[in-house]
Amino acid sequence: MKDNIQNVHVFWEQYAQSDPLWAILSDPAMKNRQWDLQHFFRTGRHEMSLLFFHLNHLHIQTEKEKALDFGCGIGRVTQALAAHFKSIVGVDISETMIRLADKLNRFPGKVSYVHNQVDDLKVFPDNEFDFLYSNIVLQHLQPELTLHYLQELLRILRPGGILVFQLPSHLRPQNAMAKAAFAPMANDAYQASLRISKIPGDPVGPGTELTLDIHVHNQSRHDWIQPAYGPIRIGNHWLANDGVTMLIQDDGRSPLPEKLDANEKYTGQLLIKTPPQKGDYICEIDLVHEGIAWFKDKGTKTLRFPVRVGSKDDHFSRADIFAAEASRAVEGTPVPETRISAQDLYADLAKEVRELGPFPMHGIHSDRIVEFFKAAGAEVLRMEEDEHSGQEWIGYRYIVKKNQIPRP
Ligand SMILES: C[S@@+](CC[C@H](N)C(=O)[O-])C[C@H]1O[C@@H](n2cnc3c(N)ncnc32)[C@H](O)[C@@H]1O
User: Fold this and answer.
1) For a substitution probing ligand 1, which of 25, 93, 141 has the most ligand atoms within 8 Å of its CB?
2) How remote is the CA of residue 228 from the centroid of ligand 1, in Å?
3) pLDDT per residue over 332-355, tens digit each?
4) DSSP tag of 373
5) What tens digit of pLDDT does each residue of 143-176 get?
6) pTM of the model
7) Domains present along the chain, CATH in parentheses
């Protein structure tokens, strides 16, 4: 494994020197140092607000003391974890990633970064962390190395602690791949206006289904032709009442006609379901080109309205407080945006962006992962489909709980 880990180090170090943000989130439009730093960090906050709302809903709780982000890169998620834990450590194999993470650290007393270039985590003691997270890291490592790190992650997790990580399982069958192939439209094709006939009256019970009439106007000069580009649908999110913190990304979906010409209008019905926890929320309606983008990210103004979930005389309890806390802590003023400009960030890196090799991808079958944790003294609480490894793979996000040590 020694050669192996040295190659991993060289690979990530070269990328970190060349195009570090794109090496982390490889959106084709952001190649060649095009990522905006604020936007980049916002993706981490978004990822964490969704995860913790979800864990809360599933009644999966952790102590809030100490968390670790394995393969932290420049701290995209590590910084967001600062809103949820008292002390957070990010660890990465690339010294350049760690140097950049330190430079971008807005919580020096709370978040620390560790460079670790070996194939174990001996740098951390046993039973140290309440919560471990790893996203888009293990999928690039050889399976034997991944299993070794998983064993190590379990060792440093305290009994009862939670590990969340993502990993591809196996390749998608070819015919399913053909179905899943979508193509982006021209950038200026994603221009729409959205209207609603009637905003639902407040308040509504948790988990209530509502049917909304949504008027869609293709305001671009392009026809939206789904057989050519892949499905385009009306969809909705649920946000905290700050209007920023994403709590439920995917709720209702309703198809558009197979062809909607430039300037054509259509009215569709969207079935939405209110969040399972009482609270004040914002429902946001948008169009989604599946597998490609939400129209909002291409400049369309979404349709939003507030929804109170509960009853009139509710004194909102945990759910509402959670949403409010998440919004305050994750998106509000106490979490400052980074002041460093992209220019400063890249100042001491390689001058030129280099064309480097593709990211290696490796999967471990989900059955093996479940067995592995069982044998190692932990339980896979949930396996949720995950798309980080691309359309070719079937992948999962695993939520794992380390067993409590049995009483003697
Ligand atoms: C695609 S990036 C993801 C970064 C971060 N998890 C995020 O989502 O923003 C993968 C990161 O994992 C790091 N990495 C890869 N192998 C590693 C290992 N064996 N130990 C620690 N970090 C590793 C890389 O240096 C890189 O920063």
Assistant:
1) 93
2) 36
3) 334 566 778 878 889 889 888 888
4) H
5) 999 999 999 999 999 999 999 999 999 998 876 6
6) 0.86
7) 2-171+334-402 (3.40.50.150), 187-316 (2.60.40.10)
